[in-house]
Specification:
Radius of gyration: 18 Å
Largest sheet: 10 strands, mixed
Order of helices and strands: EEEEEHEHEEHEHEH
Shape: globular
Helix content: 10-25%
Bound molecules: zinc ion
Number of helices: 5
Number of strands: 10
Length: 273
Amino acid sequence: VGLQPVGDSAGWFQRVPLARTQGRRPLAVIIDAAADTFPAGSRVNDVNVMGMLRGSDPALRDEFIVVGAHFDHVGIREHPSGDSIFNGADDDASGVIALIEIARVLRAGPAPKRSVLFVAFTGEEVGLLGTNYYLAHPVVPLESTVAQLQIEMIGRPDSLAGGPGRAWLTGYERSTMGDMLAASGVPIVADPRPAERFFYRSDNIAFAYLGIPAHTLSTFGLHTDYHQPSDDVSRIDFEHMTAVIESAALAVRLLADGPRPVWHPGGRPVRGQ
Ligand SMILES: [Zn+2]
């Protein structure tokens, strides 16, 4: 789709070293020196997949918007239905498709002012492993990363967001991002289910803890196929998803060209709260 490779050795992949653990979580991300404390047989090589669309504005092209989705899901498990393959069509193949299509849409139009980094993260479902590795090994400076937008589960409409083509943004009230996007025509509302704490449940939160305004765009309406083998492509509403991707592309263009979002007072999350 016309992006530049910015991963390891100027490729499309950032190697993410993982290790199998005995703890509550099956995998841990190995960051730097800890590698040799894990036995060789326990190590697993994984990757984040990334590409960059360089900005055109001399003053803004060295600022970055990070657009993310996660390409992992929960894997293969025994299930009473007999279907052991958890495809994760909505969670989060829909977000990965959005990532690719947003890149294509932006590439087809005028170059954005800021640069846009697209990352398909690994290991979200087992503790944001790919994101945590990325943040320890960013390919663009974190201090120049002005916003992060995560795309999660946009494959089916959510009536509480207003139905087909409409989405919600986690942590909407925490920063200027939501109002800025909505005022410019992006059909989004605040997360209608704050009790679910979705703001804290995807890759955006790791960026947000570092102070980068970071939110997740979603249309998940608590369908019962969540983390089930029945989260299949046959249940995706493509008309809805296409509309949301078009809105998400507009959102990314606004973030790349417009004022940089800032936290409202008290909006930036603090670890442990
Ligand atoms: Zn997800």
